[in-house]
Specification:
The chain is mainly alpha-helical. It has helices spanning 3-16, 21-40, 49-56, 58-64, 69-88, 115-122, 134-152, 156-160, 190-207, 231-244, 251-263, 268-275, 280-290; strands at residues 167-168, 173-177, 183-187. Residues 108-294 form the Tyr recombinase domain.
């Protein structure tokens, strides 16, 4: 199969998986650059040995082109996902993604916010005493999003994908859609359950409806209750809260704050289940990176 045709087919596959526009855009940019590099190397067929050899050594190509290690890591990740798709779709015979490596050191500078900073973000959005309009409801929705993120350490994508049917009030659990498209139940604090119940009650009263399992827990418009917010919209909700408190704190750092706090008393297996890391080793490595250096 021609390389450009295979890339177009893979991007179509990603759209069918309901990937966010931001994710699709990044994959498209990375794979268009891959297609250009393959053209320059005069490699046309993804089933050829030349393509396999090129893919395995793609990191060298990117470094020679002057890309920074952070960009190289992302582009290699995009290539690995593409090769895996080619194998699953039976376009190539062998899934050789494990042979495609990124060797450059990569360290994202992370600043864990203090308890005072997290508290300020937590209470940034105020709950209106009365809500009679969509505009008055928005800060209330945003408040629930930020507080759920801080209470649980959920990722933006996990919050974005939440449906009413994923919230088990009796068992005090949430069902999270993981990357492998399976669901993982996590336990909630009693206060978090009460906050979600309060959010749901006031939202249903304002818009005059009964919650159904398929309703997005956080939606952007009354007429789009079956359509979840985009990841970018959730990110902006967090950004406005942190910027409003004159803080430079990312959503991922709020997640790491909760991870560090829970790691003090909880068993690693319980943390692994809750935070959804690929392996215990990966989670422990992340914790080591986050802990203050003495």
């Amino acid at each position: 199969m021609q390389c450009k045709e295979a890339i177009a087919q893979y991007l179509f596959h990603l759209r069918n998986l309901n990937k966010s526009p931001h994710t699709l855009k990044q994959y498209r940019i990375d794979l268009e650059q891959l297609a250009q590099a393959l053209d320059e190397a005069r490699i046309e067929d993804v089933t050829s040995e030349e393509f396999r050899h090129f893919a395995i050594h793609y990191e060298d190509v990117l470094l020679e082109a002057g890309f920074k290690p952070t960009s190289v890591r992302r582009k290699i990740s995009s290539l690995r996902s593409f090769v895996h798709y080619l194998a699953v779709a039976h376009i190539i015979e062998e899934d050789f993604k494990s042979a495609i490596l990124h060797t450059q050191p990569y360290q994202v500078e992370v600043r864990i916010p203090s308890m005072t900073e997290v508290s300020a973000v937590y209470h940034h959005y105020e709950e209106p005493a009365e809500m009679t309009s969509y505009e008055e409801w928005l800060p209330f929705r945003n408040r629930s999003i930020v507080q759920l993120m801080i209470d649980t350490g959920l990722k933006v994508a996990e919050i974005k994908n939440l449906r009413w049917g994923h919230f088990d009030q009796k068992e005090r659990k949430l069902a999270l859609l993981r990357k492998n498209l399976t669901f993982q139940w996590i336990d909630l604090m009693e206060k978090t359950v009460e906050d979600l119940q309060h959010y749901a009650k006031r939202t249903a009263e304002l818009f005059d409806f009964e919650w159904e399992e398929g309703h997005a827990l956080y939606f952007t418009d009354r007429g789009l209750m079956n359509e979840p917010m985009s990841e970018r919209t959730v990110e902006r909700v967090v950004e406005r809260a942190t910027a409003g408190e004159s803080l430079d704190v990312r959503g991922s750092e709020l997640r790491y704050f909760r991870l560090l706090q829970r790691s003090i008393q909880e068993d690693p297996e319980d943390l692994l289940k809750h935070f959804g890391y690929a392996s215990k080793e990966q989670m422990i490595q992340r914790l080591q990176q986050l802990k203050p250096k003495r």
